[in-house]
Design goal:
The chain is mostly helical. The chain is 63% helix and 0% strand.
């Protein structure tokens, strides 16, 4: 791919991105993760991979406006139209679209090509470790969701029950904690494993601080409130 083509694709990505947790910095990290993973794979089409990485989240704006939409499906369609409108072949555009459509956790749209598997892993790496924690906190804040929810006794829940209200703790226990066995490439899996300890440490420290605060504070409150 020549620089002019790269800059054109990059320009379109920048025009589409306005989500704090899925911003251009996220896109570049996914691209760089993908290039790292690709070194350990065979027969990678780098043009397909680079374009798919740059455009994988361009459907986020539409999903934000209408949560019923799937940003991967929307983004795949937008990428296809943009590429065919700018002189890329139908085959190339279809291959890029397939990568984008399959980059989410969904049983009905699994990545098939090596480029799609690399994009999938590169994107999931940006949800692993300390970066995953930081991005999740950004996203939850943007959605006005709390760090944790309380049970009927006013004590903080750990997030492990799927029936709990949405919160950072729930996102960690239901999604972030479980992503490490879902990688397709060995390099992606190894990089995720290296990052895992940081995420665990953050969640456990925050959970302990919250739990201790409520446990001690509730008892102290009872001691100073007259029945």
């Amino acid at each position: 791919m020549d620089k002019k083509t790269y800059l054109m694709i990059e320009w379109y990505m920048l025009e589409c991105m306005d989500d704090a947790a899925h911003d251009p910095a996220h896109v570049y990290r996914v691209l760089f993760n993908a290039l790292d993973i690709a070194r350990f794979e065979n027969r990678v089409d780098y043009d397909i991979l680079i374009v798919a990485c740059l455009l994988h989240d361009i459907g986020r704006r539409e999903q934000f406006v209408d949560p019923a939409l799937d940003h991967a499906e929307v983004g795949g369609d937008k990428a296809y139209r943009f590429l065919t409108d700018h002189g890329f072949s139908d085959e190339f555009a279809q291959r890029v679209k397939a990568c984008i459509v399959a980059h989410r956790f969904r049983k009905e749209a699994r990545p098939e090509s090596v480029e799609a598997k690399i994009l999938f892993d590169a994107d999931k790496l940006d949800v692993a470790g300390a970066m995953g924690i930081a991005r999740t906190l950004l996203y939850k804040g943007d959605q006005n969701e709390p760090l944790y929810s309380l049970d009927e006794n006013g004590q903080p829940l750990d997030g492990g029950n799927a029936n709990e209200p949405q919160s950072f703790f729930k996102e960690y226990k239901i999604k972030l904690e479980r992503l490490y066995d879902r990688f397709y490439t060995e390099r992606g899996k190894n990089l995720a494993t290296e990052r895992r300890a940081a995420a665990i440490a953050f969640y456990e420290a925050l959970h302990k601080e919250v739990g201790d605060t409520y446990c001690i504070g509730a008892e102290l409150l009872r001691s100073v409130i007259d029945e």
